[in-house]
Please model this.
Amino acid sequence: MDVDFESIKKTQRAGWETGDYPRVGNTLQIIAEQLVEAADVRAGQRVLDVACGQGNAAIAAARRFAEATGVDYAANLLAQGRERAAVEHLTVTFTEGDAERLPFPDESFDLVLSTVGVMFAPDHQRAADELVRVTAGGGKIALASWTPGGMIGRLFRTVGGWAPPPAGVRPATLWGSPDHLAELFGDRVEWTGLTTREYAFRYHSPEHYSQWFRRYYGPITRLAGALPGQDLDRFSEELAEVAREYNRADDGTVVAQAEYLEAVGVRRA
Model:
Protein backbone atom coordinates (compact mmCIF):
# COMPACT_ATOMS: atom_id res chain seq x y z
CA MET A 1 0.00 0.00 0.00
CA ASP A 2 1.29 3.43 -0.94
CA VAL A 3 1.10 5.71 2.10
CA ASP A 4 1.38 9.49 1.89
CA PHE A 5 3.65 9.92 4.90
CA GLU A 6 4.23 13.62 4.19
CA SER A 7 0.51 14.42 4.45
CA ILE A 8 0.26 12.33 7.60
CA LYS A 9 3.17 14.22 9.17
CA LYS A 10 1.54 17.53 8.26
CA THR A 11 -1.59 16.49 10.15
CA GLN A 12 0.47 15.16 13.07
CA ARG A 13 2.42 18.39 13.29
CA ALA A 14 -0.80 20.39 13.46
CA GLY A 15 -1.86 18.15 16.34
CA TRP A 16 1.35 18.64 18.31
CA GLU A 17 1.12 22.39 17.76
CA THR A 18 -2.39 22.41 19.23
CA GLY A 19 -2.96 22.59 22.97
CA ASP A 20 0.17 22.86 25.12
CA TYR A 21 1.90 19.48 25.03
CA PRO A 22 4.74 20.43 27.45
CA ARG A 23 2.12 20.56 30.23
CA VAL A 24 1.91 16.78 29.75
CA GLY A 25 5.44 16.16 28.55
CA ASN A 26 7.16 17.87 31.46
CA THR A 27 5.58 15.34 33.81
CA LEU A 28 7.50 12.59 31.97
CA GLN A 29 10.95 14.02 32.76
CA ILE A 30 11.85 11.08 35.01
CA ILE A 31 11.65 8.75 31.98
CA ALA A 32 14.35 10.80 30.26
CA GLU A 33 16.52 10.90 33.38
CA GLN A 34 16.34 7.12 33.69
CA LEU A 35 17.05 6.63 29.98
CA VAL A 36 20.13 8.84 30.08
CA GLU A 37 21.41 6.90 33.08
CA ALA A 38 20.71 3.58 31.37
CA ALA A 39 22.69 4.79 28.34
CA ASP A 40 25.56 5.79 30.66
CA VAL A 41 26.00 9.21 29.05
CA ARG A 42 29.41 10.81 29.60
CA ALA A 43 30.44 14.45 29.90
CA GLY A 44 31.48 15.84 26.55
CA GLN A 45 29.63 13.25 24.46
CA ARG A 46 27.68 14.44 21.43
CA VAL A 47 24.05 13.58 22.24
CA LEU A 48 20.96 13.94 20.05
CA ASP A 49 17.38 13.87 21.36
CA VAL A 50 15.12 12.92 18.40
CA ALA A 51 11.50 14.12 18.33
CA CYS A 52 12.53 15.95 21.47
CA GLY A 53 9.37 17.94 22.10
CA GLN A 54 10.18 20.33 24.91
CA GLY A 55 13.57 18.68 25.37
CA ASN A 56 13.32 16.19 28.21
CA ALA A 57 16.19 13.92 27.12
CA ALA A 58 18.34 16.74 25.74
CA ILE A 59 18.06 18.59 29.03
CA ALA A 60 18.80 15.41 31.00
CA ALA A 61 21.97 14.91 28.93
CA ALA A 62 23.02 18.56 29.31
CA ARG A 63 22.70 18.25 33.09
CA ARG A 64 25.43 15.64 32.81
CA PHE A 65 27.66 18.01 30.76
CA ALA A 66 27.07 16.32 27.42
CA GLU A 67 26.97 18.39 24.21
CA ALA A 68 23.21 18.11 23.78
CA THR A 69 21.05 18.75 20.72
CA GLY A 70 17.29 18.37 20.40
CA VAL A 71 15.43 18.07 17.09
CA ASP A 72 11.67 18.26 16.47
CA TYR A 73 9.33 19.50 13.75
CA ALA A 74 7.02 21.43 16.12
CA ALA A 75 8.44 24.94 16.50
CA ASN A 76 6.31 25.77 19.56
CA LEU A 77 7.72 22.79 21.47
CA LEU A 78 11.28 23.76 20.56
CA ALA A 79 10.63 27.28 21.86
CA GLN A 80 9.61 25.89 25.23
CA GLY A 81 12.68 23.64 25.24
CA ARG A 82 14.88 26.69 24.77
CA GLU A 83 13.12 28.45 27.64
CA ARG A 84 13.59 25.45 29.93
CA ALA A 85 17.29 25.15 29.13
CA ALA A 86 17.82 28.89 29.66
CA VAL A 87 16.15 28.79 33.08
CA GLU A 88 18.50 25.97 34.14
CA HIS A 89 21.53 27.70 32.59
CA LEU A 90 22.11 24.67 30.35
CA THR A 91 23.63 24.71 26.89
CA VAL A 92 21.29 22.83 24.54
CA THR A 93 20.94 23.35 20.79
CA PHE A 94 17.37 23.01 19.56
CA THR A 95 16.93 22.46 15.82
CA GLU A 96 13.78 22.20 13.73
CA GLY A 97 13.76 18.99 11.73
CA ASP A 98 11.96 15.79 10.77
CA ALA A 99 12.79 12.51 12.53
CA GLU A 100 12.52 10.77 9.14
CA ARG A 101 14.96 13.20 7.53
CA LEU A 102 17.37 14.32 10.24
CA PRO A 103 19.32 17.48 9.33
CA PHE A 104 22.71 16.12 10.41
CA PRO A 105 25.62 14.38 8.64
CA ASP A 106 26.30 10.68 9.02
CA GLU A 107 27.74 9.51 12.35
CA SER A 108 27.38 12.95 13.98
CA PHE A 109 26.54 11.74 17.50
CA ASP A 110 27.92 9.41 20.15
CA LEU A 111 24.48 8.82 21.65
CA VAL A 112 21.05 9.17 20.03
CA LEU A 113 18.05 9.22 22.36
CA SER A 114 14.29 9.44 22.13
CA THR A 115 11.74 9.41 24.93
CA VAL A 116 8.25 8.59 23.62
CA GLY A 117 9.05 10.73 20.58
CA VAL A 118 10.44 8.99 17.50
CA MET A 119 7.84 6.26 18.01
CA PHE A 120 5.26 8.64 16.52
CA ALA A 121 7.07 8.98 13.18
CA PRO A 122 4.63 7.36 10.74
CA ASP A 123 7.31 5.66 8.61
CA HIS A 124 8.90 3.43 11.24
CA GLN A 125 11.62 2.04 9.01
CA ARG A 126 12.77 5.37 7.70
CA ALA A 127 12.93 6.80 11.22
CA ALA A 128 14.96 3.81 12.43
CA ASP A 129 17.30 4.15 9.47
CA GLU A 130 17.88 7.80 10.35
CA LEU A 131 18.69 6.97 13.97
CA VAL A 132 21.33 4.51 12.79
CA ARG A 133 22.71 6.89 10.16
CA VAL A 134 23.47 9.77 12.55
CA THR A 135 24.94 7.51 15.27
CA ALA A 136 28.70 6.98 15.17
CA GLY A 137 29.97 3.42 14.87
CA GLY A 138 30.27 2.04 18.39
CA GLY A 139 27.92 4.74 19.66
CA LYS A 140 24.61 4.08 21.37
CA ILE A 141 20.93 4.35 20.56
CA ALA A 142 18.57 4.56 23.55
CA LEU A 143 14.77 4.63 23.30
CA ALA A 144 11.87 4.81 25.72
CA SER A 145 8.62 3.77 24.03
CA TRP A 146 5.12 3.03 25.32
CA THR A 147 4.18 -0.64 24.96
CA PRO A 148 1.17 -1.95 23.01
CA GLY A 149 -0.38 -3.65 26.03
CA GLY A 150 0.11 -0.91 28.62
CA MET A 151 -1.98 2.06 29.71
CA ILE A 152 -0.94 4.33 26.85
CA GLY A 153 -1.60 1.58 24.32
CA ARG A 154 -5.09 1.42 25.82
CA LEU A 155 -5.40 5.21 25.61
CA PHE A 156 -4.44 5.23 21.94
CA ARG A 157 -6.96 2.49 21.16
CA THR A 158 -9.63 4.60 22.86
CA VAL A 159 -8.67 7.63 20.79
CA GLY A 160 -8.56 5.46 17.67
CA GLY A 161 -12.18 4.53 18.23
CA TRP A 162 -13.05 8.18 17.60
CA ALA A 163 -10.35 9.05 15.08
CA PRO A 164 -8.98 5.93 13.34
CA PRO A 165 -5.33 6.16 12.28
CA PRO A 166 -4.52 6.55 8.57
CA ALA A 167 -4.57 3.32 6.57
CA GLY A 168 -1.17 1.70 6.29
CA VAL A 169 0.37 3.39 9.32
CA ARG A 170 1.54 0.95 11.96
CA PRO A 171 0.75 1.67 15.64
CA ALA A 172 3.32 3.86 17.38
CA THR A 173 3.38 1.51 20.37
CA LEU A 174 5.03 -1.21 18.29
CA TRP A 175 8.29 0.59 19.16
CA GLY A 176 7.67 -0.75 22.66
CA SER A 177 8.09 -4.33 21.37
CA PRO A 178 11.56 -5.96 21.19
CA ASP A 179 10.46 -7.93 18.14
CA HIS A 180 9.60 -4.72 16.29
CA LEU A 181 12.95 -3.18 17.17
CA ALA A 182 14.65 -6.29 15.82
CA GLU A 183 12.67 -5.91 12.58
CA LEU A 184 13.53 -2.21 12.22
CA PHE A 185 17.21 -2.28 13.17
CA GLY A 186 18.27 -5.80 12.22
CA ASP A 187 21.92 -6.54 12.90
CA ARG A 188 22.90 -2.86 12.77
CA VAL A 189 22.27 -2.45 16.50
CA GLU A 190 23.18 -4.85 19.29
CA TRP A 191 20.59 -4.33 22.03
CA THR A 192 22.43 -4.56 25.34
CA GLY A 193 19.43 -3.66 27.47
CA LEU A 194 15.71 -4.25 26.89
CA THR A 195 13.92 -3.41 30.13
CA THR A 196 10.20 -3.03 30.74
CA ARG A 197 9.56 -0.16 33.15
CA GLU A 198 6.51 1.65 34.50
CA TYR A 199 5.78 5.34 34.77
CA ALA A 200 3.10 6.46 37.24
CA PHE A 201 0.64 9.05 35.96
CA ARG A 202 -0.44 11.05 39.01
CA TYR A 203 -3.57 13.21 38.86
CA HIS A 204 -6.22 14.50 41.26
CA SER A 205 -8.86 12.14 39.85
CA PRO A 206 -9.75 10.21 36.68
CA GLU A 207 -11.75 13.23 35.59
CA HIS A 208 -8.72 15.48 36.10
CA TYR A 209 -6.63 13.12 33.95
CA SER A 210 -9.26 13.28 31.21
CA GLN A 211 -9.50 17.06 31.41
CA TRP A 212 -5.72 17.56 31.38
CA PHE A 213 -5.24 15.44 28.26
CA ARG A 214 -8.17 17.06 26.47
CA ARG A 215 -6.88 20.53 27.27
CA TYR A 216 -3.14 20.08 26.67
CA TYR A 217 -2.23 16.88 24.75
CA GLY A 218 -2.32 18.30 21.23
CA PRO A 219 -3.73 15.39 19.19
CA ILE A 220 -6.42 14.74 21.82
CA THR A 221 -7.08 18.48 22.20
CA ARG A 222 -7.65 18.73 18.45
CA LEU A 223 -10.00 15.73 18.42
CA ALA A 224 -11.97 16.91 21.45
CA GLY A 225 -12.42 20.33 19.90
CA ALA A 226 -14.12 18.76 16.87
CA LEU A 227 -16.66 16.69 18.84
CA PRO A 228 -20.23 17.91 19.46
CA GLY A 229 -21.59 18.08 23.01
CA GLN A 230 -22.86 14.55 23.64
CA ASP A 231 -19.95 12.93 21.84
CA LEU A 232 -17.50 15.07 23.78
CA ASP A 233 -19.11 13.94 27.04
CA ARG A 234 -18.77 10.29 26.01
CA PHE A 235 -15.19 10.76 24.87
CA SER A 236 -14.29 12.54 28.11
CA GLU A 237 -15.73 9.69 30.14
CA GLU A 238 -13.87 7.08 28.08
CA LEU A 239 -10.56 8.87 28.80
CA ALA A 240 -11.38 8.93 32.50
CA GLU A 241 -12.15 5.20 32.34
CA VAL A 242 -8.63 4.52 31.04
CA ALA A 243 -7.25 6.12 34.20
CA ARG A 244 -9.65 4.13 36.39
CA GLU A 245 -8.66 0.86 34.73
CA TYR A 246 -4.97 1.29 35.59
CA ASN A 247 -5.32 3.19 38.84
CA ARG A 248 -3.81 1.68 41.98
CA ALA A 249 -4.67 4.54 44.36
CA ASP A 250 -7.50 4.06 46.86
CA ASP A 251 -7.91 7.66 48.01
CA GLY A 252 -9.75 9.13 45.02
CA THR A 253 -6.59 10.32 43.27
CA VAL A 254 -4.91 8.67 40.27
CA VAL A 255 -1.66 6.73 40.43
CA ALA A 256 -1.88 4.82 37.17
CA GLN A 257 0.98 2.66 35.98
CA ALA A 258 1.95 3.03 32.31
CA GLU A 259 4.33 0.46 30.86
CA TYR A 260 7.16 1.39 28.53
CA LEU A 261 10.17 -0.33 27.01
CA GLU A 262 13.61 1.10 27.77
CA ALA A 263 15.92 -0.07 24.97
CA VAL A 264 19.67 0.61 24.87
CA GLY A 265 21.87 -0.65 22.07
CA VAL A 266 25.25 -0.22 20.41
CA ARG A 267 25.48 0.69 16.73
CA ARG A 268 27.75 -1.79 15.05
CA ALA A 269 30.55 -0.15 13.09
